[in-house]
Design a protein that fits this description.
- The chain is an all-alpha fold and about 325 residues long.
- It has one domain (about 5-95, about 100-270): Orthogonal Bundle (Ribonucleotide Reductase, subunit A), CATH 1.10.620.20.
- It is built from 14 helices and no strands.
- It has helices at about 5-15, 20-25, 35-40, 45-60, 65-75, 80-85, 105-130, 135-150, 160-185, 190-220, 220-235, 250-265, 270-280, 295-315.
- Helix 7 packs antiparallel against helix 10 (about 190-220), helix 9 (about 160-185) packs across helix 11 and helix 10 crosses helix 11 (about 220-235).
Length: about 325
Amino acid sequence: MALSNMRLEVMKTVEKSIDSFVEKYLIPVEDIWQPTDLLPNLQNENYMDEIVQIREEAQELGYDFWVVLVADMVTEEALPTYESWLMDMEGVEQHGSTQGQANGWAKWIRHWTGEENRHGDTLNKYLYLSGRVDMREVEKTTQYLINDGFDIGTGRDPYKNFVYTSFQELATNISHKRVGQLAKKKGNKMLSKMCSIIAGDEMRHHLAYREFVKTIFEYDASEMMLAFEDMMRKKIVMPAQFIRESGQGISEAFENFSNAAQRLGVYTTYDYIDILQKLNDYWEIDKFTSLTDDAEKARDYLMALPDRMTRIASRIAVPQDQHQFKWVEANGRL
């Protein structure tokens, strides 16, 4: 269904400031880090020493850790899907506008994609060098994730898509940051640094998408509120919800990965609730006036949701049995 004229006008209005968002939240190519900065440089004479160090340090990291790191990496590697999804939003023109000017939203998405692309490259190379995972199985999982597509129920609606990215980027920040902290505890400084720096990128991206939504609230509060409510009723599930191993269904792999992440404390139900509360607070949804009746009801739902989810979460037990993934040999716990 096509967007209302109001939504398209809001998108055009926010687009006028897109260069300032690019300047504030993204980093020029010549200034930003690249995977080679964090990995052994094979042009250096001592590269073998660094590879040996990676393999030795990797021995200290347990089974659930590798499952989570693989799933995080595969999720990052499915970037072509996310770019095409965002490029399909209403208000985005990939090939320039009717005035012959480059579309600002397309510029943002391409520059965001360029930054995100480095994350999968870095983690993929690390996993390959670590020798701890079956890279062919991992690569098949990545190809399946791209082949299977990506439908999170947002359609082409930028309001809903920006709620999703605001949430998802912060969740990804938390996951990478926690993985880095666990690696550091095991003495793996190289992987810890990688994950921490990637987490920093994700935080910048979260701040940008969060600001897009805040700006939209200023122009179209009721419709933005309804879009926010709709996404939270559907539940914000990470792109890894579509992950699968060869020969298996989609839901099985994600559930088992999610359980591993919760056992490690990398990303839990309580983190989900905390992100929702942070977005409620930052967007100050309690302060809007002149909302439509439906938007008022949506706000009431969103305001009450964190406490409601906390009560439910306290009654849910995380399975302790480790699923045997094809990606990783069962060789102990973290």
